[in-house]
Amino acid sequence: MTERTHAVGETRETDRIRLADSEGLVTVRKLVSKGARLEIDRGDASVKLDALLLEGLAWQDNGGAVDEVLEAEAAVATDPVAFTAGEAAEDGPEPPADAISISNEYAQVYVRSVSTAAGDGIEVTTPGRGTAATLGLQSLRALAGVTDTDVFSVWFKTPFGPEDTPVEGPL
User: What is the pLDDT of residues 85-120, one digit of tens each?
Assistant: First the structure.
C-alpha cells in the first residue's frame, strides 16, 4: 500500500456524503488543511463551516431562526426534512461509525447522512452540548449560498448558546 504524503497547507478531502433529489446534487465534504471544515456544495455555490459554526447551527431552536440569519424566505423552515433541533439522542460515548468528525479547540461536531420519511439529509450532533439538528437538501442548498460566514456571528452573542438555555439563563 502506497502512503501519500501531504504538503503543508494542502487541502485534502477525507470524507464525503452525496445527497440528491429532483433539484440536483448536494455534496458535503470534510476538508482538512490548517484545521477541519465541512464544505456544503450545491454545484454553483459552496460554503465551508468550521466546528464552531456547525455547533451554532445545531443549537438553533428552529428553521426560522436559521432563515433569519440567511435572509431567506423560509428556505430552512419549509424544508420537509429539517429542522429537528433539540437534544441529541444518547448514542453512547463513541460517535456513530458512519459519522464525520469536525473539531477544533472550541467545539466538536459529528455529521452523518440520515434518511427520513420526507427525504435524505444530514444530522449535525454536538456531543459536548448534547444538541442535534437535521438538515435536508433544501436547507443545505440555502446554506451553500452563504458568501460570508460572518452572518453566523449573531449566534455567538452569548458564549454558551441561546440566552434561553439553562446554561445561559432566561431572556
Answer: 555 555 555 677 889 999 999 899 999 999 988 899
Average pLDDT over residues 55-81: 86
pLDDT of 2 over the 80 cut: no
Residue 159: Cβ-neighbour burial (10 angstroms; 0-12, 13-18, 19+):
exposed
DSSP 4: P
How far apart are alpha carbons 110 and 132 in whole angstroms? Answer: 9
Asked whether 130 and 110 are in contact (CB, 8 A), the reply is no
Which among 158, 149, 157, 165 is positioned nearest to 61, based on CA atoms? 165
In one-letter notation, the amino acid at residue 159 is P
Preceding peptide of 83 cis, ω within 30° = yes
